[in-house]
Amino acid sequence: MQSKLFIANWKMQKTFAESIDFCSSNLSALKKLSAQTDTEIVLCPSFPVIYSLNEQLADTMVHVGAQNCSPYISGAYTGQVSAQSLKEIGCNYCIVGHSEQRKYENVTDKDVAMAAKNLCDQEIEPIICIGETEEQFQKNEAINALESQLDFVLSALKNTKQPITIAYEPVWAIGTGVVPESAYLKKIFQHLSAIFSNVHSGPWRLIYGGSVSEKTMSSFKDIPSLAGFLVGSASLDFPKFEKIVLLGK
Ligand code: PEP
Question: Is pTM beyond 0.90 here?
Answer without folding.
Answer: yes
